Amino acid sequence: MSIATVSNVLKGRMSEVSAATAERVQRVVEKMGYVKNLTAAALSSQRSGLVGAVLSNIFSASPSQPDVEINPFYGEFLLLLDRELQPTGSTLCLYTGREETFVNFLLERNLDGAILVGIVAKELPPVLERRESRLVFFDSFLQHRVYMRVQTDELKGGGMAADYLIAQGRKHLVFVGGAVRDLPSNIPAVRFEGASRVCDQSGLRLMLIEESTSFEGGRRAARRVLDLKADGVVAAADVMAAGLIRGLQEAGAKVPDDVAVVGYDDLPLARMISPPLTTVRQGLPEKVQAAVELLKDGEKGEVRIIKPHLVVRESA
Amino acid sequence: MSIATVSNVLKGRMSEVSAATAERVQRVVEKMGYVKNLTAAALSSQRSGLVGAVLSNIFSASPSQPDVEINPFYGEFLLLLDRELQPTGSTLCLYTGREETFVNFLLERNLDGAILVGIVAKELPPVLERRESRLVFFDSFLQHRVYMRVQTDELKGGGMAADYLIAQGRKHLVFVGGAVRDLPSNIPAVRFEGASRVCDQSGLRLMLIEESTSFEGGRRAARRVLDLKADGVVAAADVMAAGLIRGLQEAGAKVPDDVAVVGYDDLPLARMISPPLTTVRQGLPEKVQAAVELLKDGEKGEVRIIKPHLVVRESA
DNA sequence: CTGAAAGCGCTTACAG
DNA sequence: CTGAAAGCGCTTACAG
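The joint structure predicted for all components is written out below.
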């Protein structure tokens, strides 16, 4: 009974081994409490069984207003992702460092693949292309014939929010979001653009307030929303909408009577605040599922666009 | 210039190499875009640079009431942990499978260490002790001379919540939490015990409602809280308190006038709901920090107990 | 179906 | 200070 035979049994390559031998091996393995060293396996097979999750720039929502809040979106994402990965047997590794240095992480660890969230860069060093590892860009703006992508139709999502407010008879709309002008290639900017176009079509002008995409950012924005005499707000994210509603309430304004607020994401949080948040659902579980599918057997450059849905509750 | 020399330079062992050679190596490494293979390094050095986070049983809060909600606590924990780990250069790996099988994860991946959250088991297979990997038990109930632990003084925390309600003149207190009787060795059970003792001392009896420790669980509990004519509630977790408050409001009760509610955790969520939640802060950032310290250079069996604090807002 | 051998890319004594 | 050599624990053709 050689090492190779044992290895074959352990990998379930039964075609290479007789049933009797296989069983004998299994028994010994059990008895000895043998545990495979996946590091060694990874080195020799060149497959690490490791999948990376790259979350850069998550510890503050905007460079100009650095709140230390963490958007619950990311934690939700990670846990959903790990659950989705379970049947594949892969282990999820985190990277939450700066965007400038994640390439090293991808290369050094020999990852089988990675999901990269909210990457702002427009291009990546060509070394990555030559590697085996499969890269799925999630809510990112990089377009490349090799890399896969999954994202929500943010343009449409932003439009749906504006559409709904207009249908409710709101006339003075404002978009509250982070760094829309600083970084044109970021999610809030696209949501703004979508809402803006819909307003244009209705002959309305969408006003803009830039603040951190965070609870405190939203809260700070409340004063300015009132100053602008807006009666409808599209917020770039649920956490921000929550802060905005709090700020409005503190200032004595009624939501939705005085100001209607539509959020974005449909996090669990949206149901928990008062009034419950009307928001654009971006379908995180489905998106995560799509990302894992691409990771497993997506083709080069394959793209999945998820349709957003408006979830009407009580804030608008 | 041998392979060994290059390796030494890369590891910063300058005592082994002359400055001139070191610089020459650095230049070539730069030019060639060399990236170290950490898998190979891990195999030969027996240090993987990997730290595990074991989160079992997180996808439903109670066996009897399996909600698919994820407590935002866990996502928050992971992100804080990864940030805390950044200076150490370690990479965080997730395990969210069943508690019964996490031992394999720890063994196979050759982790340098791991933080295990909310482990219910009282003991672990002895194989683990023989390993090099450093294990930190977080909010767990396993006591062992080898393993390290960090946890909040939950007994005290539960007591503080009850104390406060009693000081506010509440007479009919109820604890709302998950599986308190099913599993005596779980966090909600200890919080209950703490609150219960304080009530005893005041000659009050603490009533108990068992429900999932989740938003929906809390919401379901509202009806029963009202049936019991309670005027003060200690909830086992903030998410549950949030659901409870929602349920109470839906039933027409006023918080805190009719029923005062104290939560537990002090998640960001606590500030976001209406009324803002009075809650027991368990100091997650400090706890995570303590866990990482233990991981780096804690001694065998070292224990860190974090003191809880009552954060008074408006729900009680 | 089975086993001997080379190799994955590093690290680590150790001899020079 | 430098380099040749063994070894980490697997996997993978390949010869028998």
